[in-house]
Request: fold
Amino acid sequence: MPKRLSATQIDQFREHGFVSGIQLFEPEACLKIRDRIEAFEAERPDDARWAFDIKANLLFDWVYELGADESTLDAVEDLIGGNIFNTDTVFRIKEPGTGTNYGWHQDAARIQVDPCFLICYVAITPSTPENGGLRVVPGSHKDVLPFEVVINSDGQAKRKVARTLDVDESTVVDLALEPGQATFFSGLLVHGSRPNRSTHRRIAILTDYTAAQARQSQGQGSGQLLRGADRWKHIAPEPVPTGTCSPTDAHMRRQILNSYPENPLMGPLAPDDTVQFLDDPAFGR
Reply:
């Protein structure tokens, strides 16, 4: 029996690649999360850019705990089974009036994961078409679609990304969410977002949940085991952070990303490539 989602919601995910409007947290909890984010930005303005990027779950104990929420994991288990890793958590913040535009893409296009990971997009503030909320192409998750690799000029890092070609925008669905609501979608679902044309920040937190039995097409992934067991050993284990972006946590994150640099967000490494990710400048990279 499903633990959190209905049979209809599970069928929708399988057919269309997403299920949306799932209430994970109360609006009051989202206000506290926003307060944490903005307090960190105020106290450490030079660090927010790299700390809110890839694997923020290795830097902030409260981000780890957010991803490990039992009610959230119940919904994840309904979709990918009971042996669950968190393989990445990132912040996606769009300032009011900014032109940040995440083009159409499949997160698992460059490094495929079998079975594919699940992405949980949690709205911390309202997420709407006006402020650059999530947009998806239903049913596009069943295969890797043709793409071109470009250098991303928007967002939190100028890294290589796979842009999906020839998207039929007549099929696109805008997913409006209130604070605390989430969309769960396949890492192969074509998705993107528009610029924020509103007068308010749009804040979302995205977590990748991966089944323990999953294999990457290239390299080895790493993650924090949140539920169940791992008898397959395809995913390297990660520790849990001890504070709020402490030097110890930042050093640990750096070691993890250097040891396991090939993951869906950063993509594969060519023989002459070097590892590229936003990092603490104190390390002198």
